[in-house]
Amino acid sequence: MRAGPSQEEIRRHNLGTLLRHVHLGGPTSRAELTNRMGLNRSTIMALTADLTAAGLVREELPKDTGRAGRPSLVVRPESARVYVLAFDVGVDRVVAARVGLGGAVLDRRETTHARGSFDLADLVATLAGFARQMTRKTRADTVCVGAACAFSGGVRHSDGYVRFAPNMGLEDVPFGEELSKKLAMGLPVAVGNEANLGALAEHTRGIGVGCRDLVYLHGEVGIGGGIIVNGQLMGGMSGYGGEVGHMIVNPGGRPCACGSRGCLEAEVGERALLEHAGRYGEPLGRDGVRAVVEDADAGDIMAQDALHRVGNWLGLGVANLVNIFNPEIVVFGGMLREIYLGSAAQVRSRVNTGSLIASREHLRLRISALGDDATLVGAAELGFSQVLDDPLEVLARLGN
Amino acid sequence: MRAGPSQEEIRRHNLGTLLRHVHLGGPTSRAELTNRMGLNRSTIMALTADLTAAGLVREELPKDTGRAGRPSLVVRPESARVYVLAFDVGVDRVVAARVGLGGAVLDRRETTHARGSFDLADLVATLAGFARQMTRKTRADTVCVGAACAFSGGVRHSDGYVRFAPNMGLEDVPFGEELSKKLAMGLPVAVGNEANLGALAEHTRGIGVGCRDLVYLHGEVGIGGGIIVNGQLMGGMSGYGGEVGHMIVNPGGRPCACGSRGCLEAEVGERALLEHAGRYGEPLGRDGVRAVVEDADAGDIMAQDALHRVGNWLGLGVANLVNIFNPEIVVFGGMLREIYLGSAAQVRSRVNTGSLIASREHLRLRISALGDDATLVGAAELGFSQVLDDPLEVLARLGN
């Protein structure tokens, strides 16, 4: 237990907080910042001046406010100048984007690929190639303040080492380190599990803004989870927290890629859905899932039954998570958006019978607001986290 | 997002942190406090002087240190003067204690009672009666700085309202408010779920000191859970977080008091154990559980089988929690100490087959270090939390 912060630490914290306000809330008047941060006008002026000098924000007169009197200056993030590189490595596609302070995607590259084993060197080369294409086009005064990647697998949070990614045929690879080397920008690459970053994205910019306790479930081949506890992303001891896809909901049930049986992802994943619908050998992925949901909607009994069965296990899993976390909201992302929309009645019914009244009385079940970009947006937020924690330190380190 | 703390807030934080050091660590030299808190000697002196003037600590010369030079003064908590009232309402017993700053139990009263429905008025009268007996005997200069209760049920954290306590026949009772009124000491009574407070106790004073991610499982009639996430007790949206006893581990399994089936507490609770062992109609409670474990140890096949079955479900539940939380330690408390000790091999084996390698590689499974007092110790810590957060404010409010 340490003592409270020093004056210098408080200044850094306040600079970061002000920057976070304009990063997340967009252009904000000085008066509003004064109000939201609980500081006086002169302190806000001084902080803004420091951030302006560092090139992170600029101030300008607002458009006609319609009110009498001198208008308060508006503080804007320098979105075109300050950016991060955000990457998203999923089972079916790989995305790279240049995301400006404030959250706008300035540029992006994407490639799909067939399912199967990834080669680490190829993957890293693809991502670094995209990054080079995008950074080559930037103006001379732009500055990259961070890089981060959402990865479909279990990632050690200390160093971005990928421990397991069975759906991508990767295991024990120093992914963050390799990508950082290949980028050759002198930047470390923070790596996070895709569902963890999806949770972060929905919490900061999506359907869960303002919720302090949120469960995000991300469906791809498997099912990942990201949990926000009291406003903070839960990582557990080493960063593997949130692997709710391997919660056993049906002991002795369908075999899972992890070696166990009856895991949530084995019972609810796309393979379970397609097999229950009698569609053996059909292409997996989003299209296959969508076809089942559409056919069920059109009256296909087998498709309806498949959604019913999968919805039952999904509901049981959600009920367990509601009892465990007493969350304000559960968000369905990735392919689970389709599955949830196709089985919502079943899921809700199972949640109602399987969770305590007190634990679910204020609960909302919702689909992701950020859609397919949730994980990429989360990666960008992870990339920005350092500059938002200590803006001047990061710029000084970069030599700005 | 608010700005950093003011100078006055930092001073209050530092006073609280210093007090917490001697409360949890016992008498500590000024030199050691300087070191641990990262403050200079003169600041530590000033903080100690304030806490001494408030009657919360005193300074004295250490016993012979065996070293040359002027010894650093030792700061001690005023354990005999400053105390909280801690209560523990379980299914089989009710405890009240006077606990001094520093954690020593100065006085205690306890009564057992038969299982069945509680009457709120009787319960509150019993607890307040115990409190009166204990406070009547105190010296004139003692001061009660807080009161808190561990309760075997679901408690809303904002006001200590008990939402559900099926094993005690209580539902929707304003327990905290009624106890506070009956105590008539002008103090609110904070109320927490017993397993939540057991987790807090093991984290601050038990087997989990220093662990930032801990799962505590408490067995009584049911099974409660308390989870420490990144050093903080997880409450969820309204305080009902951690109800892992109602995680469904065996869909369609044994009926549970909550109305669902196959909940962890239905499959692992004392009733399941005794029935699997063929002991229908035998007295429940700790003695019944102990008898099964002892008989299994002595070679009783049915008792061994019962422990094996119960251990299997307990292991599956723990495996799920390990995947979800990636904890450093899982602690078994209450009656689960006996059950875990009697089925440890089975539990470990199930955890190994049901959880991801990365999530369990540094995992420790342990029994509670505080034993039957874990929940009471947790209540005392909850009672002390206000004075540790802001020592002078609490004393000023009490008129000291």
What does this structure look like?
Two copies of one chain form a homodimer. Chain A has helices at 7-25, 30-37, 41-53, 120-136, 175-183, 194-205, 264-268, 270-276, 286-297, 301-325, 336-354, 357-360, 374-389, 391-397, and strands at 28-29, 57-60, 74-77, 82-89, 93-100, 105-112, 143-151, 154-156, 161-165, 170-173, 190-193, 214-219, 223-229, 232-233, 329-334, 364-367. The first copy, chain A, has 14 helices and 16 strands. Chain A is globular. In chain A, the strands form four sheets. Chain A has a five-stranded mixed sheet, sandwiched between helices. By secondary structure, chain A is an alpha/beta fold. Chain A folds into three domains: 7-77, Orthogonal Bundle (Arc Repressor Mutant, subunit A), CATH 1.10.10; 82-196 and 375-397, ATPase, nucleotide binding domain (Nucleotidyltransferase, domain 5, 2-Layer Sandwich); 210-369, ATPase, nucleotide binding domain (Nucleotidyltransferase, domain 5), CATH 3.30.420.40. The longest helix of chain A is centred in the C-terminal third of the chain and has 25 residues, at 301-325.
